[in-house]
Amino acid sequence: MIARTLRNDSLPPLKRLRAFVDAQIKYLNRIGWRNGCLIGNFSAEASDHSEVIRKRLVGIYEEMRQSAAYCLRAAVKIGELPRKTECDELAGFLIASLQGAILQAKAERNAVPLERFKHLIFSTLLH
To answer: pTM for the whole thing?
Structure first.
């Protein structure tokens, strides 16, 4: 999913980010809002029980953060975002917030938390 969205240089950067969020919503809708994100599920359930799993999860979150930062840097480069944008920090915030929205959507079994996340990031942070 990351290769098709965040790292897809054939799409404008903010469109890539929107596609990444939309892909999350589409996936969760398809599975009935029951399983959530596998990474989030493992983080909540298994990271206390296995150091190997915990370290792998940290690596996966870092890969997502780096991919989001790559996309944000591309947005800065073409003028979609201000030059002063702190891409690494913003990427970390976006990934953590997205994971929280996914967990809430799983509990509510609907897209409302993710749609709220998407609306707010694109109307206030990434405009």
So the answer is: 0.89
